[in-house]
Amino acid sequence: VFESVLATCEIVNSKSVKVQCNENAPTLSIDKTDGITIYIMKRDVIKNVKFVTAKSSEMNVSFPSADAEGDFIESALPEQYVHIIEKDKVSTSVSDLYSH
User: Fold this and answer.
1) Fewest CB atoms less than 10 Å from the CB: which of 25, 33, 82, 100?
2) Which of 30-34, 64-68, 76-80, 83-87 shows the highest mean pLDDT?
3) What pLDDT digit, counting tens, does each position of 9-68 carry?
4) CA nearest 30: which of 47, 48, 49, 55?
5) Which backbone phi and psi does 79 adopt, to 5 degrees?
6) pLDDT of residue 100 exceeding 80
7) Taken in order 18, 40, 22, 55, is the CA torsion positive or negative?
8) What is the C-alpha radius of gyration for the chain, rounded to an integer number of angstroms?
9) What are the CA-CA distances from residue 100 to residues 33, 95, 97 (Å)?
10) pTM above 0.70, yes or no
């Protein structure tokens, strides 16, 4: 649990962790981690947060919904991608498993 970080909160080589950001975190870096839930506690912070992930699985983020009731939404961070070659370039998209 932390209030704010200036640049990056890094989670590396971890299993089954929970991270809670109460104020601000411009970047959350997740590397070689299996099982993480990140709690972003303020709605106005969401638009400024970036998630950088590598070699990780079972990643979820929980954040306040836009409605006034104060419910939280939990959503998976994709860990599976589709790569295709188009016109001499590699194009990457999130797997259909994460479509709603």
Assistant:
1) 100
2) 30-34
3) 999 999 999 999 999 999 999 999 999 999 999 988 888 899 999 999 999 999 999 886
4) 55
5) -125, 5
6) no
7) positive
8) 15
9) 25, 11, 9
10) yes
Per the CB < 8 A criterion, the answer to whether 61 and 79 are in contact is no
3-state secondary structure of 43: helix
What is the predicted pLDDT for the residue at 66? 87
CA distances from 27 to 63, 70, 85, 87, 97 (A): 15, 24, 29, 32, 25
State both tokens at 69.
């009731």
CA 18 to chain centre: 12
The amino acid sitting at 17 is V
38 vs 19: CA distance, rounded Å: 5
Type of residue found at 93: S
